[in-house]
Amino acid sequence: MLIGKTNYQLSKSAIMDEELRQLQLDKRIKGKSEQLLRQHSSISSDLAPVERACQLLNKGDEIQRINVLNSLPELAMTEKQAVYNKLLPKVISLLPQSSAEFQIVAAKMFRMFAERNLSVSTLLPVALTGLQHVDATVLQAWSDALMDVIPRLSGKVIQSQVLSFIMKDLQKQSSKQKKMSYARLLGVISEQPAVEVAVVKSFLNTVIDLSRDPIPEVRGTMCLQYPAIVEKIGLEKSILEYIAFFGKDENPIVRGSLLSVIGLMCKDFSQDSWKIHSLIDVCSNADDDTKIILAKEIGILSLCLSNCASAKELSFIINVYQKLSMAGLSVTEMKKGSDPSRSVATRQQCAMSLPQMTNFIMSKPNIPEDVIYAIIKTLTSDPCYAVRRQAANNFQDIVKFMGNKINILIDIFLRLLRDSSDDVLVCLIPNLSGTLNQYAKQGVLQTKKIDTNINEFGRSLLKCQANVFKLNHWRIQAIYLRQIEFLPAVFPSDYINTQFLPVIFNIITKGGPKPVRKQAIRTVLKFLRYNIKQEQRNNMRIRLVSEIARSQLFYTRILFISMCNDCLDIFSTEYFKTHFCEVFLSLADDEVPNIRLLVLTFLPRIKRFFFKPNDNNLIAMLDKLILKRNEIERDIDCRKILNSVIVQVRSINIITQKTIKCPTPLDQRLYQEEIRFDVFV
Hints:
Blueprint: H1 2-25, H2 34-41, H3 49-59, H4 62-78, H5 80-94, H6 100-115, H7 120-130, H8 136-149, H9 155-170, H10 176-191, H11 197-202, H12 204-211, H13 216-224, H14 226-233, H15 237-247, H16 252-262, H17 273-284, H18 290-304, H19 311-325, H20 331-336, H21 340-352, H22 354-362, H23 369-380, H24 385-393, H25 395-402, H26 410-417, H27 422-428, H28 432-441, H29 452-468, H30 474-483, H31 493-509, H32 514-530, H33 534-549, H34 554-570, H35 573-579, H36 581-586, H37 593-607, E1 611-613, H38 616-632, H39 636-650, E2 655-657, H40 665-677
Parallel strand pairs: 1-2
């Protein structure tokens, strides 16, 4: 028993010693060593920037050298010649024995020089040498730098230096990262206008060698460069063979790469559309991630093949799309135990490509509209919110392509408006006005009468508003209110006045985030401007004054001042002077200094809109207000602003104008529109 206890104490002591050692490791480390102090003390701080940078490169440590590298592009803007003659040669001489971090920063710095067309000829050999580095990250950095340098080189230099270097280096044993970098570089070279067709054809054998490399990542990277090569030399027989070979590749990386770029080459497949048909068939039946890529690209592929593929092939594409849009939902796939995350990603990509597929199907008169309706309904009622969210995000584009068949999607749109998912509403609401406009263009919504469509759309919009205002998300609430500013263009004034206006006034008066309340007031002003009934306009103005300007709450009254600012943007100055100016000036006597301060700040702007003799009453009211505040104002901030305002107001000369004068052409246009509405009655 004693021995066991002793062993326990020893093990406990060992644990404590280990913990103590770890605590000692956490202690603050000592300062610079004597050697570093001597090294750094020899660097003078009084030198010119270029000379000091040279000393830091010679005597500084790694961090200091990297800082010098980062400052080179900025130094080159002021002391270009000194940087080229002194610093660049020194940096180049340090590269062979430098660390990976130094190499990466040097590559980044050289890219900056290349973007500014500075010393490209000097940078090219350095970037080519960097491609020999064994570190994959460094190799990638120099490869990216070279891609920025190549477009600034002549065709002769590209052929004699860059291309010859790549061809020679590929004859040696190369790593995977190097082969992938060279494949990308061959694609960039093919894109350059300065490179002739014969030059691209000269390295076609190298392209084919990389296309059949045993490493799938290399084959996939080379596949991604085929559009640039085909664009330059056309669809050569050997290229066509390897595109077909890629389509049957057993590795999903290669097939996915081909799917990503095949749409860019569709115009070259007018006589060989069956090859794309075969690729789609293989990928749609594959149990890997190529199914996700196919769902993403199938919309572009269908549009590209629309004019060259046979009716049978087009029908096959639609069937594949329907199958992908149901991925993971069928009983058969559920029994197989397919990957749920992959199925959701596939359906999500289908929802993303839904506008292109809608355009494709609606452009074919022989395809019944029930086909696209079934697909859209499937994706917008998907059990996963992420799929519905993507479909909602694209719904405005979908209805544009539906044309006069848009009425078949009414129930789908209304169901999206009533969706219980916050994420779906967040994506649907920003495009709400555009979607409603499409329905109005096709006659589904009309402003002349309240029919069944108006009632259904109105109820769904109000349900959407109720769901949105349950969220703790003031931005989407403000966006919703901004979108329904458009309602007077698609809904009758009577319906807006009875159904939407009470709800919006409730938002204004019951409190909430200030941006939401301000947007609600702006929405009411929009309703007021485009309301065609005089009685309803009068009631709205009375409520704006009584419930906002005359409110018992300071936070509500202060909103009236921001409302007047919006009013001058939405209405003409004459409208503001007729209906709101007197109420606004009366707030200068408010008991709360913050409100008086804002009113006083606004006075010089208002006076510029006054003209004699039409505005004599308002001019007299303004002068009386300023005199009164000058006598009784006691608040320090208000007094300070008032003194400045008095000087500004006195400097403004009021013009005598017999007829109503509008200060700007926009104001004149707004005034003429208001005259047509007879809003000054």
